[in-house]
Amino acid sequence: MSTLAHTMMTAARSTDSGLAGPGELDRYPFAEAPVTERVGAPVWESAEPELGRVGRRTAGNRGRGLHGQLVQQLGQMIVSGDLGADRPLVPEEIGQRFEVSRTVVRESLRVLEAKGLVSARPNVGTRVRPVSDWNLLDPDIIEWRAFGPQRDDQRRELSELRWTIEPLAARLAAGHGRADVQQRLSDMVEIMGHAMAQGDALTYSRADAEFHSLLIQLAGNRMLEHLSGIVSSALHVSGGPVTGCDRPNDASLGHHGRIADALAAGDGAAAEAAMRQLLTVHPEVERVVPAPREH
């Protein structure tokens, strides 16, 4: 095993990320908060006092400070539909409900505004914006959608987007003879092989994510490179429809290896074909990516 593979696998085993895994965010801590009829404003009170204490509720499993936790909670509530479009968000009520300072509320709302989830206007206040205004390429919004009520649509859309991005990136990458990056891709395939043999899913997923990120960087297209975060997010929230990246097995590993070999040989067509094979759903899954849809 190479030094890189050993280092990466050791680091993966010793890391306690504290992050919720795929599926664990299905249960929104505040999804059951009732909604008042008064001028459409949300009621933040709850029969469970603990729900209002963001720090105690989520610090253990999210590894974030109060600011990050509040962004997480409000973002989930908006994306899940618990706080619908045009819903007013009163900072004072939010601060009381979640027991955080005005500064924390203000900074959290600014983050959500940057993501397109809310808007703040003089004499109107802060309101939830419609889905059409959201930055759907934002990694946090991708995660919130993928583990919320829109999970099926989000995962399908991510699969279709990857089908568009990555085969093209693979073809372009074959024309860039950066030996250092190509060696790194081969290292990732080696790490994935060792991790799969040892049943180390965490190391496998990390090497897989780096493989795809490196490939997009190697394509030499800055606009494509800007989209690499989408691919990373897609890998993080992987799940039905299933692609070759979601189930570590010999076939998946083989596709990654063929992509790396094709890039080293400068064969863009072979690299693109291998990437399409990798991104195709497994035979036992009825739908193939990209899937035709009725409108």
Textual characterization of the structure:
The structure is a single chain. With 295 residues, the protein is mainly alpha-helical. Helices cover 57% and strands 3% of the residues. The chain has 13 helices and three strands, in the order H-H-H-E-H-H-E-E-H-H-H-H-H-H-H-H. Strands 1-3-2 form a three-stranded antiparallel β-sheet. Strand 2 (118-121) and strand 3 (125-128) form a beta hairpin. Helix 7 runs antiparallel to helix 13 and helix 8 packs antiparallel against helix 12 (250-265). Mean pLDDT is 76; it is low at 13-41, 45-63, 282-289 and 291-295.
Question: Which bin fits the share of residues in helices?
Answer: 55-70%
Characterize the largest beta sheet: strand count, sense, and whether it forms a barrel: 3 strands, antiparallel
Query: What does the overall shape look like?
Result: elongated
Number of helices: 13
Radius of gyration: 21 Å
Beta-strand portion reads: under 5%
Uncertain runs are: 13-41, 45-63, 282-289, 291-295
- Mean pLDDT across residues: 76
Q: Number of DSSP strands?
A: 3
List the SSEs and their pairings.
Elements lengths: L2 H12 L39 H9 L3 H15 L7 E2 L1 H8 L3 H13 L3 E4 L3 E4 L10 H8 L4 H23 L5 H19 L3 H18 L3 H5 L1 H9 L13 H16 L2 H12 L16
Antiparallel strand pairs: 1-3, 2-3
